[in-house]
Write a structure and sequence with these properties.
Length: 347
């Protein structure tokens, strides 16, 4: 029997990879997408994917959708996912990330679908916040952003519905996972796109915030397999997915520039710090207060031993390979003219 999956947030990075993965497994895939957020990556999957306009904050519309689609599996990936933006729009972060999850869980319960649906909740390593690394499923949660607090609320709602109503709900606590499909609002893609542009002649430096933040960066394509694996287990549970290796933003920058043959030397401190081309002295990287957050999670490094043991999941892509594949994808995008070239005129 062909299974049906419903993916909320299907237009995002993870939604794109997950829909491709599930289609290859023979699933019928339905996706919830905000009407103003339908973009390129989805083109490749249509018409195999059925898209539905919608929004997690619209409880009645969600119930109608579940009734119509009758999914076997729901992957709740939709979110206000930018941590810094969540400081600027905290009420939206809470309404979408926590309230939206509640709307889905309640719909399942009210429609009496508790026994027929399996539910994946996209939880986040941001929930660990200030807790010391390495973080695993037993680490105390100390979020320090509206995003992290809202995700933690959704995490507990998911657990509550699992324990109270017997719903098959699993939380995937995913550490940062990146790819060429990441938007440039996130630091990895912001870096790799700028590096590719500089190779082609861009003159303006790359301007970043906190270079010392340490993250556990993996490749998104590896992580969507873990989401699927969680829902194939007889017993629902919570799992950390991470590489176990951590690098600073600065490490990422250095690695990305080395991919185009440039070495960096650092001068100055704090907001005055600059990364210069080791050969020519040209300023390639600057720091600006705009990109700092009111409070920062300093070190995230996950321990995914449980996922390895129970799901057989492990990441396949190293940090160096991730940086290389992202820089190369941005180079290719420029070569083929896929990305806009506004910076060229500006430069
Ligand atoms: O920041 C620092 C920034 O915005 C990473 C989301 O998927 O992963 C992601 O959240 C680090 C932070 O991702 C810039 O301060 C420095 O320490 O790429 P990011 P994030 O906040 O870690 C978690 C697990 C999620 O769940 C989220 O949904 O990089 N940083 N300079 C910068 N960050 C940005 N965005 N831009 C900068 O210029």
């Amino acid at each position: 029997m062909r299974k049906t999956a419903l993916i909320t947030g299907i237009a995002g990075q993870d939604g794109s990879y997950l829909s491709a993965f599930l289609l290859a497994k023979g699933y019928r895939v339905h996706g919830l997408v905000r009407w103003d957020n339908r973009n390129d990556p989805l083109d490749a999957f249509e018409p195999d994917v059925v898209l539905h306009n919608g929004d997690l904050t619209d409880a009645n519309a969600l119930s109608m959708l579940l009734k119509r689609v009758q999914p076997d599996e729901i992957y709740n990936l939709a979110a206000l996912s930018h941590v810094k933006v969540s400081f600027e729009t905290p009420a939206s972060a809470l309404a979408i990330n926590a309230g939206g999850t509640l709307n889905l869980l309640e719909s399942i319960r009210v429609l009496g679908m508790e026994k027929s649906v399996r539910f994946y909740q996209a939880s986040s390593s941001e929930m660990f916040g200030g807790s010391p690394a390495p973080q695993n499923e037993d680490t105390p949660m100390q979020p320090c952003s509206p995003y992290g607090a809202a995700k933690l609320s959704a995490y507990w709602l998911a657990r509550t519905y699992r324990e109270s109503y017997g719903l098959h709900v699993s939380n995937g606590i995913l550490f940062n996972h990146e790819s060429p499909l990441r938007s440039v609002d996130f630091v990895t893609r912001k870096i790799t796109k700028a590096v590719a542009e500089m190779e082609k002649g861009r003159l303006e430096p790359l301007v970043l915030g906190n270079l010392e933040a340490v993250r556990d960066w993996g490749y998104a394509q590896d992580y969507v397999e873990g989401m699927y694996q969680m829902l194939q287990r007889e017993k629902p549970d919570d799992y950390v997915l991470a590489t176990g290796k951590a690098h600073s933003v600065r490490d990422f920058v250095v690695r990305a520039f080395s991919q185009i043959g440039l070495g960096l030397v650092w001068h100055g401190e704090g907001l005055g710090e600059e990364g210069r081309d080791a050969r020519t002295g040209r300023v390639l990287v600057k720091v600006d207060a705009t990109f700092f957050r009111p409070s920062e999670v300093h070190v995230l490094r996950g321990d995914a031993a449980k996922a390895r043991r129970l799901l057989g999941w492990q990441p396949r892509t190293s940090f160096d390979d991730l940086v290389a594949l992202m820089v190369n994808a941005d180079r290719e995008a420029l070569r083929t003219g896929y990305e806009d070239r506004a910076w060229m005129q500006a430069g």
